Amino acid sequence: MDKGSLYEQQNLLKQELHSLRTQLKDWKDQKENAYQEKEALSQQIIKLIQEVKQLRGKRNILTDEVAEKKKTREELNKAVKEKVEGLKTFKEQHQDVLKRKEPHEREDSPDFLQRHMQQLEEKIETEVMSFEKEKKLMEQIKTLRKKYLALKEGSTVFKQLHETSKEIKKLKRDADTSHQDLQTKAKTSQEIHEQVMKKSREIEELKKKEEEKYVVFAEKKKKYYDLVVQVKSKSEELEAIEEKLGIEKQQKRKEEEKKEKEKIAHSAEEVHAKMKRGEKLTNEDLLILQASDEEE
Length: 296
Hints:
The model is unreliable at 102-107 (pLDDT under 50).
């Protein structure tokens, strides 16, 4: 290939490399932008996954608490049922006691009867009386004792009835409180579950977008490295041509130096001939001799 063709190819390669390097910079920027967009989505996904993990932890704790509250509520309801059955029994006993009493006796109290019996017993012990009167008082005490025992039984049943009613009311309050607490925790747990589902859907959508961005990034990355290969190839071609042009310049310079030496040597021979003929030397002749001496 002649020198003109090499110079022409050199210029063409320089233009191509300039264009390729401009494209390379542009595609590098596009590649980096695509990567940043993909990474931004990746960071959002990581953040949402952490949030979902925390929410699931809270939800699981609430779910366990709800299960425990349900167990407590069932136990309280069972206790209420048992107490109600016991209350029915006490009511029946109380009714039986009332049926065994005369209407006017229902107004008496065990304390009153007990005091009356003590008074009669003291009277027997402290007063002098006939056998018939003492016998009559003893019969009266016996009757009072029977009434006292009947009223005492009724009072005990009533007390049991009253205490059981109080226990039932408390158990029902506890059961209602437990139920309300259960409802609140169940509602909160459901709300958290809905947040988990919503964020999980967001994660799936972001993963799709992330995949799309990755495809775009991969395409731009491939295009960028294709250009890198082209730039490298063209640069190597240019270097080869410039190396060839460099060798030719060196050869031309050597040829010119050789011709210059031959010219000086020929001129020096002519000056030496003038000296032999005894002719006067000019300044130019002196410079030729000096140059000839330097070449030697």
